Write the structure tokens for this entry.
Amino acid sequence: MVSTFNSVSNARPQEPSPTETAPRRYRFGFVLSTALGNRTRYENFRRFAERDSEVECVWAPVKHYIAPGEPDPFRRWPGALRTRAIVLYQSAPVLERLSSLDAVMIHMYEVDLLTAVRSLWASRPLRVISSDDAPAADPNYPLHPVELLKPAWRRALRLRIDVWRARRADLLIPFSKWAGDTLVEAAGVPLDRVRPVHVGLDLGLWRAAPKPEVEGARVKLLFVGADFERKGGADLLEAFLQEGLADVAELHLVTQTAPSALPNDVYVHADLTANDPRLAALYREADIFVMPTRSDLTPWAILEAMASGCAVVTTRVGGLGDLVVEGETGLFVGVGDVLGLTRALRSLVEDPPRRRAMGAAGRKVIENQYDASVNVPRILDAMKAAVDTRALREHRLAGARR
């Protein structure tokens, strides 16, 4: 697919003075998922959004479940209905204030659909959809394996709903140009409503470290993926055991779903969380990050690996083609191509200067394009501009009626 979007300057904005007391001009709500990698997105976005002296933020983090000890009004509700109810329940801090908000950023299907219906009669607030997930209108869209199990009629119905709610949005801020292209070219969303910007990483937490070559030391391979099978973990294990890779490298798996029986020199880290300093240390110590994912959009683990100076081996699915530059910051392999994965890993294991150069180039990409201290203000600026444009339009319409 040919990209519709041009790159945007990442000039670092001036942070407000701590003594600045200007009144807040905007009131924005944020309904954001905190499941899996989305926890990183929520923490990064909130950390930098709250520095904006013009914006009053109302937060509704949604974790999709009721934690032990929390009130659970839905404990007797059946499966899918219970999950939907929990999402809306946790979104209440924002949903209860919709009429007083200038804009609401949404990353939850249930809230998106609810506010899309509400927008048929209510013009406030502006609906801003920020996600790495575009409607699956592109035939090459990397559907989640769970979606493939659903009957065709159900997927078709969901697609029609997804396209409708995307077209009802006032502003869409996808995480990648790939998702932006899908929204415009495949789903028919007007180009002027789509602004691809990834939230980015807190580079104060994610730092690169020198990776000197130590004679006789094993090369460290790192995999990070909660869904071990979908992220290509089984393919990686098979590749690791071929062509003597296990003789010269060690493999670290950050996942809670790894197989119970693993070969020597494979280490599992099952207790790490988003932005965990121990996870950051694993990235800094790794030589190669490998995630031969079978279905993905714009995974955070790739960004974290590049920020840590790792060469990357992955597949070209979803928005990964926007993150990794073939031959410069990493290598692409085919989905399910174990032999190709083995050869790619072997080529980097045997060429330390090349993998170090890829790691350094990847760090530069993150600094230039995925710095949350730059990208979060860009996202807020897009929301402010949309609110101002609507206010000006309403003012002109009111003047024309007089």
Observations:
- The chain is about 40% helix and 15% strand.
- The first helix runs from residue 38 to 49.
- The radius of gyration is 22 Å.
